[in-house]
Every structure is written in structure tokens, then in C-alpha cells.
Amino acid sequence: MEDLNYYPYFDFPADNSSFTRALLDQFAKDNGHQITYRILPIKQFPKWLYEENIDFKFPDNERWQEINNIHHLTIFYSDEVVEMTAGTLVLAKNNNKDAASIKTIGTVAGFHPTLWLDKIAQGQVILFEDASPTILVQYLINGLIDGLVINLAVANNELEKLHKNEKIVFSNQIEQEIYSYKLSTVKYPEILKQFNQWQVKRQKYIEELKAEFGISAVEPKAVE
To answer: What pLDDT, on a 0 to 100 scale, did the predictor assign at position 168?
Structure first.
């Protein structure tokens, strides 16, 4: 698990309840498994997976491993657990601005702002990274960055903690993609099959869990 407070999806450093913790704990309980959570810095995730010191990785997605899988391992992925929107968050009052107006982008250190990588490499956009979503949301509110590449549910949670009245939205002027969080492994594909079957069987529970943590209210947003 990532060493990051990314609530409501996960907050393992503080050992708090979260969507991921509740989901995986229930899967383990229903199927007679015991899970030991190991919290790793984001940039150490690929290394540990390659060295096979962890059995499963969550969250994961094929698009990230296209960048990180330098050892060309065979990595198995579960069916999608929750759909996500990859886009650019802006203050609602700036929602009419187009991509050309974005000169500075913020994201969590270790994340890959996929839709902006070319412009960052060309020097057209400056990337600001921080380990704290709270700091990143503050940057956006204070006008220190033009856009933010984190999850909308996470940003809304930070706004609530900061007691700010600003509204943050996905820019409808900038490209968006739908992707998903998945569970991955290099060693136990049979457990992933069991997990997939469990998701189908417990679909109602999972949807209720998404609603409980405020995820279903914002994910996914239809691409306009």
C-alpha cells in the first residue's frame, strides 16, 4: 500500500478506515485469507514488486506499469475495482480556461500526470510535486498552480478539512480519460480470479461501500 493519505481511497499511514481497507479486509474475511499491509513509498512500489517481496499491489493499473516495468515481468491484474477519472482539477471559477492557459500543474510526488507528460517534457508546463494532497489543494486555492492532477473525491475531502468554500471541478476544457484501480500480482493469479468472482458476488456490498465513502458521487465523470 502507498505511504500516502489519499482518503477516501486509502490512508494506511494513519491506519484509518478507508474504502480500500474496508474492501480488502472484507474480501479476506469472506475467503479465509489473512492480509498483512506493508506501507511503501510510492517510488519503491515497482522495485518491491520486481523483487517479489510483496504478493499483491493496490492500487495498480497497466498504464502505470508501462512506465515502471523495466524488468518486463508478467504482471496479472484483477478486473477493475473502481473506475477513476484522469483529468485536470481547477477552481470552478476557472473552468472556462483551456489547456493553453495551464502553465503550472501539481500532483502527488511519485504520481505520473499522464495527460501532461509531453508538455512537461517540452517545458510548456511546470510540474510541482508534494507528498501531501492537502498542500497541493492549498496551492490551487491560493493560485500558486493552475491545475491539479489528483482524484476529485480526495480534493473534496481536503477542502472539507481546510474549511474552504472554494469549489474544485474537473476542467471540461481539458482532455479526460477513464481508467481504474486494480489489484495486481506476479505470483498469485489464482487469487485474482477469486477476487474477481468475489467482486461479482458482492457487487451490492461494493457499491454500498463506494457510497459510504463518497466515491460513487464523483466517479467516473463522463468525458465531455
So the answer is: 94
pLDDT for the residue numbered 96: 87
Cα gap 58→78, rounded to integer Å = 10
Q: What is the per-residue pLDDT for 120?
A: 96
State residue 66's pLDDT score: 61
85 - beta bridge partners? 178
- The pTM score is 0.84
CB < 8 Å & 24+ apart, contacts of 112-116: 112/64, 112/67, 113/149, 114/63, 114/86, 114/177, 115/86, 115/87, 115/88, 115/149, 115/174, 115/175, 115/176, 115/177, 116/88, 116/149
Residues of the chain with pLDDT under 50: 222-224
Question: E strands, 75-154, where?
Answer: 76-77, 82-86, 89-91, 104-108, 126-130, 147-149
> Mind giving me the DSSP string for 133-179?
HHHHHHHHHTTS-SEEES-HHHHHHHHHHHT----EEE-TTS--EEE
56-90 burial by CB neighbour count: b if 16+ within 10 A, else e?
bbbbbbeebbeebeeeeeebbbbebbbebbbbbbb
The predicted structure's pLDDT at residue 4: 78
Rounded to an integer, what distance in angstroms lies between the CA atom of residue 146 and that of residue 61? 27
